[in-house]
Specification:
With about 375 residues, this protein is mainly alpha-helical. It has two domains: about 170 residues, no CATH class; about 130 residues, no CATH class. It has 17 helices and no strands.
């Protein structure tokens, strides 16, 4: 029936049926995950907003997400919100089922699938078990994507000696911040932490005199670790930076993006004898292009701070005391972040964090 309705372009009717059918497979998720017909229905729904009529209209207005995709997102949100209706103690089983279904579809419709996965990940982030499961699913997806890339460009790899890396995000997105959070984190773990590439890069930059080239150091470290060369634009410190700039100041994930950025920007250079060698964070923002990126980051921090300052000063709207206190805490947080970004002494070896003024929030460092 679902296939027939898809062929007749009755997409909203298909969504209504899926709303009732999907939870029936909670006890046996493998049945629906292995169904090629159901997967084809999902892919058709993800592409539904690109019918020839809608495509013609998109030449005038390219709105994303489209009507069908929005309705699909609403359906998933209803499932996750009403999990008790299906005798569940948490939305975790439904979230995992939907993530696995969409991970398969992502390989064909990455943009639309990312939008829907963003809805699920916005819930998963706040539950430790769901978060771990979600990271695992995206890890599997990254491995599948990497294998697909290698197979697709195998001849080119042989000719050029290169080995294209897989990625879940070609560029930062303001439409899917939660998906970006999980995707960048997975890529950071797989490409830089498990391989020790990031630590080796910090050590190389620390030992290089003058103003070393990030690209040259990265290429050198990849060669030393016998890894395929990757462009400096894939470095997680730049990925988090770009995502910060793309994310609206009022989005709940943006403080987390800042946290991820500072964890790399202020990270101490690894040392065998545990000697404090300081940080090389500022070296990533030397040169015209990267210095411009730093200027944008400083401006974004100011925008974030001013946004919450305005919220605190708003007397025309009745705001609960608890929420007003939260706005004040956010102002303090962004004030602290600004100090971290501006104060070069934080990168010096042997800096005494406990001697810093209270405004630095040294306990967060």
């Amino acid at each position: 029936m679902l296939e027939t309705l898809i062929q007749c372009h009755r997409y909203l009717a298909v969504l209504v049926l899926i709303e009732h059918i999907f939870p029936l497979f909670i006890e046996s998720p493998g049945s629906i995950l292995m169904s090629e017909k159901f997967q084809n229905v999902i892919i058709s729904l993800l592409a539904a907003d690109r019918t020839f009529i809608k495509f013609a209209m998109s030449l005038i207005s390219s709105a994303f997400p489209g009507l069908i995709l929005k309705q699909f997102g609403d359906l998933i949100e209803v499932h996750l919100k009403n999990y008790r209706r299906y005798n569940l103690i948490s939305p975790a089983p439904l979230a995992e089922m939907w993530l696995r279904v969409l991970a398969k579809a992502w390989l064909i419709e990455p943009l639309a699938a990312s939008y829907l996965m963003d809805k699920i990940l916005s819930v998963a982030f706040f539950h430790a078990d769901m978060r771990a499961t979600a990271l695992g699913i995206l890890h599997e997806l990254l491995e599948t994507q990497s294998a697909s890339q290698k197979q697709r460009f195998s001849l080119m790899n042989w000719v050029t000696g290169s080995n294209p890396y897989g990625t879940l995000m070609n560029k930062s997105s303001s439409d899917t911040p939660w998906f970006s959070l999980f995707a960048i984190e997975v890529e950071q773990i797989v490409l830089f932490h498990k391989t020790t590439l990031w630590d080796n890069l910090l050590i190389d930059l620390s030992s290089s005199p003058g103003k070393p080239s990030i690209d040259s150091s990265l290429k050198k470290c990849c060669a030393a670790l016998k890894l395929s060369s990757i462009p400096s634009s894939t470095l997680p410190i730049y990925r988090w930076s770009q995502q910060v700039l793309e994310t609206p100041v009022d989005h709940p994930a943006i403080p987390i993006f800042w946290q991820k950025f500072f964890a790399l920007f202020l990270k101490r250079v690894p040392s065998i004898n545990r000697k404090d060698l300081g940080s090389v964070g500022p070296k990533f923002f030397e040169g015209i292009t990267n210095n411009s990126l730093m200027t944008k980051l400083k401006k974004k921090l100011l925008d974030c701070k001013e946004f919450y300052e305005t919220k605190c000063k708003n007397v025309s709207t009745i705001i609960p005391q608890e929420k007003r206190a939260w706005f004040s805490n956010m102002v303090n947080l962004y004030t602290c972040y600004s100090l971290w970004l501006e104060d070069c002494s934080l990168h010096d070896p042997g800096v005494n964090l406990y001697a810093l003024p209270a405004s630095y929030c040294s306990e967060k460092l």
